[in-house]
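Dock 2M8; give full complex structure.
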Amino acid sequence: MAHADLDQAAKAILTENDQGGYTIPTKGLYPYQWNWDSVFVALGFAEFDQDRAWQEIEMLFQGQWRDGMVPHILFRKDDPSYFPGPGVWGTDGGPIPSSGHSQPPVAASVVHSLVEADRTGKALERAKALLPKLMAWHRWYLAYRDPKNLGVIAVIHPWESGRDNLPDWDEALRAVEVKDIGPYERKDTSHVDPAMRPHKEDYDRYLSIVAACRKVGWDPEKVAETCPFFVADPGVTFIFLRANRDLLALAEKLGMSAEADEIRGWIAAMEKGSRTLWNDEVKAHVAFDERRGKQTDGISSASFLALYAGLHDPQTLGALQGHFDRIAERVEYLMPSYDPDHRSYEPLRYWRGPVWAMINYMIAKGFAEAGDAVRAERLRADTARLIETGGFAEYFSPETGAGAGGGSFSWTSAIWLTWAS
Ligand code: 2M8
């Protein structure tokens, strides 16, 4: 397809997935508003309709819980094509039926980008209205996903990381007792190839974690204390650290000095804390199971987000450039979600190998900001080649470039429009 045709196709996908102010990831497989999908989608809309871009994020924040959490899914209307729906989650924390945990907090960074790219003259006003909500969400993350003040952010569910069946969760997930789930019917495997989706053993445990949190009424303090899964995630940690830097820039721009001081404290603590995720044997940041006090041993695409988080000291940058070049020798398209040299790598099984466009966007931003324009451009060019050959798929094989998962996917279209094209 020619470049201009792809632009048109990407815009058409966003418009078709638009439900009247918020966008679903794709029809059938994911029929609700997902948190970080929506935020990336705003970047795509901003290329042709900035007002609509703001609306996407504002509608996401309509679902914010009283305690500050912004849920990973908002169930604005019931749709039996997705499981687990609102009944399984049993939440009561906010104004819109929702899931019970969050997702990677990219919103502050995207709000900052929207302000920078503004052509409407209204961006600062809209950012100002969102700022207290962003602050509340970030405070929630620090209080309940880093209760011991380690300076790293944990996830209480693989779904909270956005990287569902990543090998980093395997061991911690195996330790979760399967209980209180009863018989259930998955819907994901009827929409897409089951060989590419998480296994049933994973799903049993995903639902067992939900059941355990439901039992404590999704009280955030109790969840942090008792949830059977509590793993510090380099993905959420680096996205959050980056989001704090962007939130600080916004607070400064808006002259909110008390907030700016508070955020500076968070950044300092996280810059220090993220060192605990550094695995000196693999020479990268990895996950850390806080319940068992154990680091994982694999490099994931999120390891590269250290640069996006602003951690580009010579040791980190040099190590990541080395891994980048090694992985580039192993696969045709960067960046696989898991290290192809690791025993758990699977090129087509969801988050165990495939390439995701929005992760590439963030990794490339990090390389560019660290002064490595060459590797940043390689990521952009690979993402463009993937979309040109595999279409606007949910994700892609790093080996063949084949598109997989759901089709007509919103965030892939948005990333094309904002960066890859
Ligand atoms: C995937 O996650 C959902 C659960 O949230 C699922 O597999 O059912 C992940 O890729 C996640 O990151 C993404 O936000 C969601 C919708 O695209 O799908």
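Observed: Residues 123-145 form the longest helix (23 residues).
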